[in-house]
Amino acid sequence: MRLKSTWICLTWICAAIFVSTEAANADLVGLWEFEDSGNLLAASVGSDLALTGTAAAAAGSGGADAGAAQLSTGDYFTATNPIGANGGGSNTNAYTLVMDMNAPGSSWNALVDIDSGAFSGDGEVFTNPSGGLGIDGDYYGTGANGSWHRIALVFDMASDTSMTTYIDGALNHAHTDSELGGSPNADIDGRWSLLGTFNPFSDNGGGEEETLAVSNLALFSSALSAEEVSALGGPGSLIPEPNSIGLLMLGSLAFLGLRKRSK
User: Fold this and answer.
1) pLDDT by residue (tens digit) across 113-127?
2) Taking the domains of the chain in order of start, what are their residue ranges?
3) CATH assignment, 28-239
4) Could you read off the pLDDT of 72-113 as tens digits, one per residue?
5) How far apart are the C-alpha atoms of 168 and 255, rounded to whole Å?
């Protein structure tokens, strides 16, 4: 009976790990890993990036995450948004942006321009000179300090907290609509809703950007849950091979199966 209970428990744990991974992967519609130093704009999922300015090949965060793109002031990408209308409006109102980046945290740095200037002449998410992550005077945590971090920006324009930020899988801050400027900025189809393209690391085409390296950039077609963001963890390969925990579980299941058959 004890062996059977252990078998069932391990089976459910192993299944939960892989189901969680598959759920996040199903929503992945854009992935840029910067592993090809000869073509830093190549997409692993979705369409290739476009580049304004220059980008240089650099080292990634380590291990399988070997490559990165180095950007300076005035350098930024343009990414295609394939999601379309969702979240109750004409624009993309529910989505998640993930970026693995290494920035000094010594000046204002735009992480993304979303609205193309329709609501604001600034970008939509920044790190401030202290490394805090946010917008409009509301900055929290440390997303830029000269180390690699995985930044997740979860948007749900139909929610009362239209933007939620995470650093290395941990909740950083849930920005209320009032913190985002209220209506119409924080409304459905407002300032943080995606149009057909968006510009990572642009402050509406130039200005408050600092030198940084980015080793992964990803777009998900839904507002990922806290559990899904936590499962993404810290910087590294965004879509890894079956992880060591999963493999250990599978090995344990196989071992228990052999023991059961030998009795």
Assistant:
1) 999 888 988 899 999
2) 28-239
3) 2.60.120.200
4) 989 999 999 999 999 999 999 999 999 999 999 888 999 999
5) 34
